């Protein structure tokens, strides 16, 4: 089939490759416009634009994906179907209906669970045992269209949003390519979602990524893993924000601190700052090891290295 592909971040790249390798003709790629990025705020092309241009595909970068000129450009490409993967902008019905076979979206959850912008982050942060990918037909309501295919994966105890996103990107790429093949052969069954069972995964903002140390250790660990590596879970030390990563639970004697004794400390108290093992922090129901940190203006590092340098001392408190 002739495919018009829509996508912007790294997550979308495997799907573009899988669609092309399955024998479909990519007639064009739509991606978000170049944006200022990094400390220098230089305008940079999206990961999708770089890949599409390297492969020689026609690239469209509308500021808003509608209007007569943009619609005309799409019609001129004569796609059979649109494939949308993390494009980053809502599409109107007029745009969705231009390809004769409509528009399909790859979403990183088991719909109707976790509709919205950040399904991978919230699957981990909310402690889900599994998640997955769904291919759905796009409608004007957010992530509410009929599902054509799904595949589930378990969420491991050490999975992070960054690592799980890479796994789901590969899984979703294969699922999308297979779905297009079945669609071409007339073998796809579309299933309406149970809208009453829908849950939502809103965009992650800075406040959502702040650690509340009064929560249980498992809940705190899930939040930290769910925000790793962007935007990064964070907390305050002496009024200065610090990002925290790689949480873990400790059962044995840890340096000079007994885990049972650590449970009596107020949430956020650093009950051990060890130059070899790192830091142990009191959560609402016991201690939690923080394996990595990123101080303001610094690089991500092991918490033990932070302690050996200008990091915290036992008795300091995160807020």
Summarize the structure.
The protein is of the alpha/beta class.
Task: Describe what this molecule looks like in 3D.
By secondary structure, the protein is an alpha/beta fold. The chain folds into two domains: 2-197, Rossmann fold (3-Layer(aba) Sandwich); 217-308, Roll (Methionyl-tRNA Fmet Formyltransferase, Chain A, domain 2), CATH 3.10.25.10. It contains nine helices and 15 strands. The chain has helices at 13-21, 47-55, 68-77, 93-96, 119-125, 161-184, 217-226, 259-262, 303-308; strands at residues 2-7, 25-30, 35-37, 42-44, 59-60, 81-85, 103-107, 130-137, 147-154, 234-237, 240-248, 270-274, 278-283, 286-294, 301-302. It is elongated and about 65 Å long. It starts with a strand and ends in an 11-residue tail after the last helix. The mean pLDDT is 94.
């Amino acid at each position: 089939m002739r495919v018009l592909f829509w996508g912007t971040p790294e997550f979308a790249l495997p799907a573009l490759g899988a669609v092309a390798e399955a024998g479909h003709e990519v007639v064009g790629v739509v991606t978000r416009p170049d944006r200022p990025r990094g400390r220098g705020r230089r305008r940079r092309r999206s990961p999708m634009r770089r890949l599409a241009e390297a492969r020689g595909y026609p690239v469209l970068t509308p500021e808003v994906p509608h209007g007569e000129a943009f619609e005309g450009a799409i019609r001129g490409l004569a796609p059979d179907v649109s494939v949308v993967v993390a494009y980053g902008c809502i599409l109107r019905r007029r745009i969705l209906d231009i390809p004769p076979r409509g528009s399909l979206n790859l979403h990183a959850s088991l719909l109707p669970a976790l509709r919205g912008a950040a399904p991978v982050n919230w699957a981990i942060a909310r402690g889900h045992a599994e998640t997955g990918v769904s291919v759905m037909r796009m409608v004007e309501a957010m992530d509410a269209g009929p599902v054509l295919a799904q595949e589930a994966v378990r969420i491991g105890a050490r999975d992070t949003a960054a690592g799980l996103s890479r796994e789901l990107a590969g899984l979703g790429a294969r699922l999308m390519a297979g779905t297009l093949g079945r669609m071409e052969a007339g073998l796809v069954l579309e299933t309406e979602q149970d809208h009453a069972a829908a849950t939502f995964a809103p965009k992650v903002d800075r406040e959502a990524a702040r650690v509340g140390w009064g929560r249980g250790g498992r809940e705190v660990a899930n939040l930290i893993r769910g925000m790793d590596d962007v935007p990064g879970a964070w907390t305050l030390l002496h009024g200065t924000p610090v990002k925290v990563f790689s949480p873990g639970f400790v059962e044995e004697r840890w340096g000079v601190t007994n885990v049972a004794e650590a449970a009596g400390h107020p949430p956020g108290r650093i009950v051990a700052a060890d130059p070899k093992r790192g830091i142990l922090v009191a959560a609402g129901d016991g201690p939690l090891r923080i394996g990595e940190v990123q101080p303001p203006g610094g690089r991500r590092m092991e918490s033990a290295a932070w302690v050996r340098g200008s990091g915290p001392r036992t008795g300091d408190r995160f807020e």
